[in-house]
Amino acid sequence: MTKVVVDAAFREKIDGLREPVELCDQSGRTLGYFHPMVENSTPGDSKVRSPFMDEEIERRRQQRTGGPLGEILEDLDRS
Description:
Strand order of the largest sheet: 1-2
Shape: elongated
Radius of gyration: 23 Å
Mean pLDDT: 85
Strand content: 5-15%
Distance between the termini: 39 Å
Largest sheet: 2 strands, antiparallel
Number of strands: 2
Number of domains: 1
Low-confidence stretches: none
Order of helices and strands: HEEHH
């Protein structure tokens, strides 16, 4: 990833942001998006939510399907 160092004036503009913002030039053309690092945040702070309930996730974690890796690799070698 390329790193861009911002000057103090730009830093003041973005200081205190807690949500993603769209960065535009003077004509309104989108340059990109900025996702600020939020101090003391936890994964639960995110607005992105799984469509699955915690119980469903746990049930799927417990569900074991498939075969041993050795058998899978043997089948792939035969193909």
